[in-house]
Backbone:
């Protein structure tokens, strides 16, 4: 089944960002709305056909019913390779990677991708197995970020982390039990931030592969942030420090 992106902002970012869009579907009667002019113009520039369809057809193919009258049908998503990403960021003294250790919730995956792109990360690295693939739900949660942020799938996260280290990255794992808190964590230079799954956190071997583990100080009664919230805090503390210096 073809992959779909839903929602006006997500479709526009897909067209602008260069995702391989097969066609755009617009609910009948909406093609003349000024609010859709940017989408139609972007599709025309890319040579992407626009099909008018009945709204009930969009409803039937929608995973969450939030298509806003617009959807894009994508060609197969192209994952980047770790080698490509490391080569592209080879000259960046402050490169940032985000590594997800078997995050299976597509909403969290997309939200992490959105925060990573907004914070200027170079790529998001995930495992091939026991991880959410790129789906319409991920695209929706990412709000267009996947058009700009390379996603790397690897067969073995531990080996990938060793390769990342060899490329000069300091690997920082997020753990609620870590003695070093985020405010004292070493976040300068080339950094790879590693976050664990929603229920189990970092797996043992991935945790052992990290150079340092850090925790996020919490003041409330809830035990932890979810992975997307934690990624956002870590990423923007790094942004804050880079701006301060």
Residues:
């Amino acid at each position: 089944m073809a992959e779909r992106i839903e929602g006006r902002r997500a479709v526009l970012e897909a067209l602008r960002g260069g995702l391989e869009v097969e066609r755009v579907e617009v609910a009948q009667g909406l093609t003349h709305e000024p609010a859709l002019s940017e989408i139609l113009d972007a599709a025309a520039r890319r040579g992407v056909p626009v099909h008018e369809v009945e709204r009930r057809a969009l409803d039937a193919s929608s995973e969450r019913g939030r298509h806003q009258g617009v959807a894009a049908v994508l060609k197969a998503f192209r994952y980047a390779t770790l080698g490509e990403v490391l080569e592209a960021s080879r000259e960046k003294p402050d490169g940032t990677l985000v590594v997800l250790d078997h995050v299976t919730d597509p909403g969290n995956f997309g939200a992490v991708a959105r925060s990573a792109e907004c914070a200027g990360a170079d790529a998001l690295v995930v495992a091939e197995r026991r991880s959410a693939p790129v789906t319409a739900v991920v695209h929706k949660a990412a709000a267009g970020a996947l058009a700009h942020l390379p996603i790397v799938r690897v067969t073995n996260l531990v080996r990938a982390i060793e390769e990342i280290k060899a490329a000069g990255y300091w690997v920082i794992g997020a753990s609620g039990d870590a003695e070093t808190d985020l405010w004292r964590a070493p976040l300068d230079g080339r950094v790879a931030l590693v976050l664990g799954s929603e229920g189990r956190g970092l797996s043992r071997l991935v945790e052992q592969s990290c150079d340092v583990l850090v925790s996020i100080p919490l003041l409330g009664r809830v035990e932890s942030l979810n992975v997307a919230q934690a990624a956002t805090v870590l990423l923007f503390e790094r942004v804050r420090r880079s701006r301060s210096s």
In short: The chain has a mean pLDDT of 89. Residues 82-244 form a domain with the Alpha/beta knot fold (CATH 3.40.1280.10). The chain has two domains: 3-74, 82-244.
